[in-house]
Amino acid sequence: MQGRVVASLTAEVRPQVGGVVHERLFTEGNYVEQGDVLYQIEPATFQAAVNEAQANLNSAEASLETAKLKDQRFADLLEFEGVSQQDADDAHATYLEAKADIERFEAALETARINLEFTKVTAPISGQIGISTVTPGALVTASQATALSTIRTLDPIFVDMTKSSTEILKLRQLLAKSGIKKGSTDVSLILEDGSEYELKGQLKMQEVAVDASTGAVTLRAEFANPEGLLLPGMFVRTQINDAVDENAILVPQQGIYHSAAGDAYAYVIDENNKVQSRGVTTLSAVDNQWLIGSGLNAGDKLLVEGSSKVRPGSDVKTVEVEMQNNGEMVRVDQQSGGNTAMQGGV
After folding, report:
1. Domain boundary residue, one of 245, 265, 296
2. Rounded to whole angstroms, how far apart are CA atoms 10 and 13?
3. Which of 22, 103, 120, 245 has its CA 20 to 30 A from that of 265?
4. Burial of 255 (0-12, 13-18, 19+ CB in 10 A)
5. In the 8-state DSSP scheme, what is residue 254?
6. Dihedral sign, CA of 167, 172, 176, 179?
7. What distances in angstroms separate CA 247 from CA 113, 168, 240, 278, one per listed residue?
8. Which pTM does this prediction carry?
9. Can you tell me the mean pLDDT for 255-272?
10. Residues 43-74, buried b or exposed e (16+ Cβ, 10 A)?
11. Domain CATH code at residue 141
12. What Cα–Cα distance (Å) separates residue 50 from each residue in 16, 19, 42, 91, 109?
């Protein structure tokens, strides 16, 4: 299946207050930790706002103390009718307003301190940070549309694949058959240059809905990426063992031939060392082998090399070979005399 590499976490860095960028504190392309300061916005006006909010709070605290004392005096005098009820009520109301002012000015001070802290633009996640879109001296605004930079977590990293809903239905029908077992969650990766990624991934999830526009379902695998070889946006090929057929027959591709009409056949060597031509059905290619649907049985001796020297009915002396992962045939045993053919077991 075709797949596309996706960062496991992505976060765009945006300012939460406006101002002039005073300093950039990271190197583009480097790894940053969550909480690292990336940009410093000019803090002078925000520090002044904190100072003003603190002064207002101090003034309100002084007014509260005065209002509290007056409220207590009037309450005492009211017992001896030294003041009117209205004056006592007004003094108590003034005290309550002074208490409310304290809460209001404390909230204003906290807001000013938060805005001052926001002049330090920090990394929301850990990962590799990309190119900065601004330089010192640039004017930025709160929650602007253009991100200052983007951070991506590359280890672990995801690979998103798509499989048609038809294939998923066929797989479920296949798994319902006897002798077919569910495969593993291991995922192999073939890179753009044809090389195989050395680390296996794990299939993590399958989307719960079919894309109406493509008729496909997205699958996501997770891979370790310690060297940073996999980058977001790369297109790769993946291999997943969805199901295991314990009776499946795989044969080397060079052991299957095609007639002028396009029909597939194989040369099978019988117990009398005679060559027989047998029609076969191939289902799909698996690396450098064919998955056989019909025509061959387990234990058949298949002619894989030397077909130009023989015809159906020919007597042959065989050399047993095994196929390596790279497709090379390696001799296992040798017999001399007569026509010689390379044969492998099915």
Report:
1. 245
2. 10
3. 245
4. buried
5. G
6. positive
7. 71, 22, 19, 19
8. 0.63
9. 81
10. beebeebbeebeebbeebeebbeebeebbeeb
11. 2.40.50.100
12. 17, 16, 14, 31, 6
Strand ranges inside 56-213, DSSP E: 120-122, 127-129, 139-140, 149-164, 180-182, 186-190, 201-206
**CATH of residue 172:** 2.40.30.170
pLDDT at 317 over 50: yes
Q: Which residue has the tokens 């190119």?
A: 131
CA torsion sign for 62, 65, 68, 72 is negative
Residues 68 and 31 in one domain: no
pLDDT tens digits along 175-188: 566 555 555 578 88
Residues with Cβ within 8 Å of 81's Cβ and at least 6 positions away in sequence, in order, are none
Average pLDDT, the chain: 81
Q: What distance separates the 2 farthest-apart alpha carbons in the chain?
A: 136
Owning domain of residue 148? 2-40+122-152
pLDDT at 265: 83
- Looking at this protein, which amino acid is placed at residue 35? G
β-bridge partners, 292: 249, 282
Q: Rounded to 5 degrees, what are φ and ψ at 19?
A: 160, -175
The two structure tokens encoding residue 257: 């031939």
